[in-house]
Design a protein that fits this description.
The complex is a heterodimer of chains A (162) and B (103).
Chain A lengths: L2 H22 L3 H21 L3 H25 L15 H21 L14 H9 L3 H22 L2
Helix pairs in contact in A: 1-2, 2-3
Chain B lengths: L5 H21 L3 H25 L5 H31 L13
Helix pairs in contact in B: 1-2, 2-3
Classes of the chains: A mainly alpha (162), B mainly alpha (103).
């Protein structure tokens, strides 16, 4: 067992345990903070997979943007004076059975499928390669995504202040 | 213990996906449902990057993971604006109580 495997199991445990707390905790603010650790763990897994640029983007966008947005959502939609930051739950029993069966089937499929593995040639840094792909092969998708992001943010602002 | 390979990453993403589905099904609060969606998007991203590393697809998987992150940011902004509006109109964000389109 080398150091790579050790770090992988560390990040996997961090991700899965904090994700479990996210979905089982009754307090929404606690859930949001556990989600922080899940995103950190996922970023670590990206690094282990050799995707350094995506890992940094994950940290900046998810931890710095989406998580803060979610926390604002929690704060703005609860009565701060009489602290009511709990979430109710419905159909726990059937959901546990259904999700358990679903996860079992999916895990069996993943574990017994004969995956063909060819390791990608690992470069020192992926940033330049991704930039080249973004500006040559995927330039149309890049432009479309920019327009979508602009429209979505303008739409969100105009919906929220109506 | 076997050395870490493609299957390990796929198992992690499967478990994350299942927990996201569980959050969407069981939570009443709309913000918690959003957190479940974020978990699912993260698990899909792990799959993309794992196959970009272990499959013979070059760097396309990593690029698509970037696109997914951008779309997740747009989706979170829109969804939270809608949630705020629902709270303003109906003063609740529990998705099982929001069952009419107009007051």
């Amino acid at each position: 067992m080398n150091i790579y495997d050790l770090i992988f199991y560390l990040f996997a445990a961090l991700t899965l345990i904090s994700a479990f707390f996210v979905v089982t905790n009754k307090n929404i603010v606690h859930s949001a903070f556990y989600l922080l650790f899940t995103f950190f763990g996922v970023a670590g897994i990206y690094v282990l997979l050799g995707a350094d640029f995506v890992a940094i983007v994950q940290l900046i966008v998810y931890v710095g943007g989406i998580l803060i947005l979610l926390l604002f959502g929690v704060m703005l939609t609860n009565k701060i004076t009489n602290v009511e930051i709990k979430t109710g739950t419905i159909n726990i029993f059937s959901a546990t059975i259904g999700v358990g069966l679903f996860a079992g089937v999916l895990l069996a499929a993943v574990l017994y499928a004969p995956w063909k593995v060819t390791l990608l040639q690992e470069p020192v840094s992926t940033t330049g390669i991704l930039g080249n792909l973004l500006m040559n092969e995927y330039v149309l998708v890049f432009e479309l995504l920019g327009i979508i992001l602009l429209i979505a943010l303008i739409g969100a602002a105009s919906i929220a202040r109506r | 213990m076997v050395t870490v390979g493609l299957t390990h990453f796929l198992v992690i993403s499967t478990l994350l996906f299942s927990m996201g589905i569980y959050a969407i099904i069981t939570r009443k609060n709309a913000v918690m449902v959003l957190m479940g969606v974020e978990l699912i998007l993260n698990s899909a991203n792990i799959n993309f990057i794992a196959f970009s590393r272990f499959g013979n697809f070059g760097f396309n998987g990593q690029l698509i993971a970037l696109f997914v992150i951008v779309l997740a940011a747009a989706e979170a902004a829109i969804a939270l604006a809608i949630v705020l509006n629902i709270y303003k109109n109906l003063s609740t964000v529990n998705v099982d109580e929001v069952d009419n389109l107009k007051e």
